[in-house]
Queue: 3 jobs
Job 1
Amino acid sequence: MESQTESAKNLYELDEKPPLSVTFISALQWFFVTISSSLVIPLVIGELYGLPAQQLGQFVQQTFFLIGLVSLLQILFGHRLPITEGPAGMWWGIFIILANLGMAAGQAPREIGQSLEMGLIITGIMLITLGAIGFIEKVQRVFTPLVSGGYLVLLAVSLSGPVVKGMLGIDYFSKGSGVQPMLAAVSLGLVFFTFIMIRSRFKYVRSFAILISMLVGWMIYLVMDWTKPLQEAHGFFALPQLFFWGPPVFHLGTVLTSMITGLILVTNLIASIAVVSHVVNVRPGEGEYRRGGIMTGVAHVLSGAGGIVGLVPLSIAAGVIQVSRIASRLPFIVASVMLILLGMLPQVSRILAGLPSPVGYAVMFVTFTQLLGFGLRDFERIMLDERNLLIIGFGLLGGIGLMFVPPEALQELPPIFSYVFGNGLVMGVLLIIFMEQIVLRKKS
């Protein structure tokens, strides 16, 4: 991994060790950002699969334990970048689609979970093999500024809907509830408050703007009595449960769907490494992509063994580093250990699970503006001639357009195809690669 010169130098670069106080506060910031960005998915999946309150709490704990463990493995032995892991949006969709199909066919939710465990484990073994033989580096070569820029713009656009919906308090108090004006006002205030702190002349206010906004928002919700009742927790210490849904069961359709999903998510891994490397001022080599791919395979095996939604590196990490200007590995390692401990302490996890979702969405909105900026900067790195404008326009319009296609319109397709074609982010990236590498390929 080579250093590269950047105009925007971080307060603490990748290999530097901040003072103890800065390390601890920065670790807290990583900790809360990870919780706010990943909490919703295990709650939604647990409720969809009909888990009772105690098992739902255990499912959330399993998720955070493995997020911390995989993040630690990646930064120590994988790509070695501060990129938080989180449940993949595609895996979330697969869990939901297969649950709906399976329940309609009379399958019990637990049986569906068992087949997904096997699918994740086999997909993980496939990714480890592909990483070991150098497949990841070959895919990385097609990630030109056109592709990475398109990916980041589409990612920001695809997440803008759920984030803004969450900021407005829709569905917060009850399912089907509309915009909550008071919650929306607080969310908007937190966004502007964060932007003001980012521009502060005090460097530590700038660095910890995300954490400060999160805590301020949480305090407002507590004072106004807008927080939800905490879930009941039993015991003080609990180890993760192996095969949460039961022993893995082989189901050919689920395994094939899982393997295709894993192949598509290679693009997510490459994009996350590329954008975070740019922010931490290093140039990743083939070794980083190879080790990152192997560890992503390990993450899938562990996700299957734990029965949780498959984990992948999240590009949101780039926005956090851009805001804080702290690229050091040390705070991230501390935060990963904190997440592992969180996954073993039910009483603590039930309190942190009470973080109001509109507060988390408001702070995430700020980091997503950074991601959109990174995408536009990638487009600046190329000549915007007729060819490149055609490729960008085709990919972005195709991807964003598919985001507006109602899911029920794709129900006649096989499950994996319905989800791929219904995923504007994935299809937009594939369209850009197809146009650049095949239709409008430059002659050597």
Job 2
Amino acid sequence: MTAGAGLDPRACDPARSFGRRHPEAPAPTRSAFQRDRDRVIHSTAFRRLVYKTQVFLNHEGDLFRTRLTHSLEVAQLGRSIARSLRLNEDLVEAIALAHDLGHTPFGHAGQDALHDSMQRCIDQGGAGDGWGFEHNLQSLRVVDELEERYPAFDGLNLSFETREGILKHCSRANAQRLEVMEPEGVANRFLTGGSPSLEAQLCNLADEIAYNAHDIDDGVRSGLITLEQLEQVPLFDDYRRRALKAHPGLGGRRLLFESIRLMLSDQVYDVIDSTRLSLEAAGVATLEEVRRSRTLVTFSADMRQRSQTLKTFLLRNLYRHPKVMETTGRARQVVSDLFDAYLSDPAQLPEAHASRDHLPRAVADYIAGMTDRFAIREHERLSGATLFP
């Protein structure tokens, strides 16, 4: 849905946006949220997502998901659900495409290594700035500060509603710091309770739906999990049985794809139906009431339980598979070594980073912006070691 026509009264209307940090005249042919989406797509950080890890490192195969393909899948799922609920599709797309802009190379392994490195700066004499490192917060830093595309301001100057959706999680300590910088801003709800817009809530759930589905696909493609193992997972096995009933004798990748397709469809329909019931039960009639309420975009209780069982299966059998853990360990080493190398010899950094006031944060920003393959090359250059032959 564009503009305000046809939108649910609880949806975000770009004509009533809370605005941008730096005021700008409206675009003549695009709504505020369409403009946000376009700025994200043309950003440097968005292009880098094509070479950033989802589960499998970029060099492990050309057909595995990356942060870019994941973001596109979240946007597609989000728009499909938003259309049925009469939410703002443009806002959903903008949030979905931007939500992983702050992810490090090597996925969560890189994030954890950077956080540990920043924490060491505090432990070894107070050189840290107290923020640590978290990819949601880094995504906000990317769109608020780190992108350099416009002469009048740093960042992309996105609307409040898009920025609110990007900041899915935030510790209380970091929320308090953000609140000082931006009173009653995007972090306020983490201090006062309440919820973000329905569009932001939807993106959060679409993210979960997307990664569960594509991690099944990538896990089977990699050979680390099998269709036989997945028969232990009620959510997946139900759709496998449906696929076989409709197409007797179906096997291999076609069976896998059809099972995932059926699962995705049912989860989308479940979110639509459950959210409608949730909105009715909560009795909210406006966006302001949505913000004062609990989370309203949701699975049914049964789908939530079955989805959680799938997540537990993937955690035990894919994310903690010995081969994945071994790669994760090397990835953490790369990020940790890079951080220490740049901190001890800032001349190895680009001048724009080396000259910044807070060196540890400049180093974290630089490493977070790297692709997997650039981080590997830099590590080899600085250390002489080859951790990923």
Job 3
Amino acid sequence: MRILTVHNYYQQPGGEEQIWSTESALLESYGHEVLHYTQDNDDIPGMNPFLVVKNAVWNSKVYRDLRSLIRDKKPQIVHFHNTFPLISPAAYHAVKDEGIPVVQTLHNYRLLCPNALFFREGKICEDCLGKPFPLPGVIHGCYRNSRPASAMVATTVSFHSLIGTWTQAVDVFIAYSRFAMDKFIQGGIPAEKLAFKTNFLYPPPEIGDGKGGYGLFVGRLSVEKGLGVMLDAWRQLGGKVPLKIVGDGPMKGLVTEAIKEMPEIEWLGRIPLEQVYEVMGNAAFFVFPSEWYETFGRVAIESFAKGTPVVASKIGAITELIDHQRTGLLFNPSDPTDLAEKINWLLVNPDALSQMRQSARAEFEAKYTAADNYKRLIEIYESALSKKSIASI
């Protein structure tokens, strides 16, 4: 099969880029030809702001370029990961007008919420869910703390809702969790257009030994990731266990201040994935304290692959990943005391922790392998091709 993937790079690379590149490599390993069409948000600072806004709603050049590319390369399916803001939803219409099936992976909640997180002022917020125009998100400046920028996102999503982009120009939306699927249905995405597929790792890392004796956090250093909750929990732990933090972000200052107070905390910054896996495999446990509705939680299955149990917030899609007291522990979201208590329990129950290591790796091998994921992805592609074929009759 010849597959065209479409992705708009973010200025700060993250999980979406990893998933996009990993999925492409997986498809190629099975003999498919994978083509790429990309734009990069690093180009935005040198662009006219009015052009950025206009292109976010409808990028005519992308529309023309994609139609030309499809006519030249003749892909059988086009798989989108991100179109915001430079590619724009005009790209879906370009593919549709060439008669090719469209698949879109839902990595976040941007179709339902201007900041894509359902998170405002340190709390879950669903004020815009299901609204024809997400005015609360504009009023509160939810995207980048800017009302004009939030208005751009709101206008883009509402305009394309109005002209039927989500219902007519996309054949299949891929969601990584049942929780996320339910939210998108609440927000107006037709249930029959949603397909469930977990995330995966390719190639999978080898299991670690967990003998480092420390807890680990890997992720963006931001409020929705629960960084403050985790640091408060470590204050309550009183130096009982070291903590390593991997990542960068707007709250790095909070980490550097915490290190002055708690020398058992070490900040490694942003490191290559191979080193992340090494640190993860040596960790006694992984801390996943998110306060927002994660659409999946790729970092949890990375931890499982290394045999490292996960102590995670009991919120959103995370609850579908963690089997409490088998592959890790769940704690009440935004509750540092409960998190500290769960970590204390692990420290005084080493036999249970050891058993969790085996169960975590077994969970990865049972649910998140590349082979199973490939099979499901092809099923989704075939479903999209079938829908397009029926529609053309």
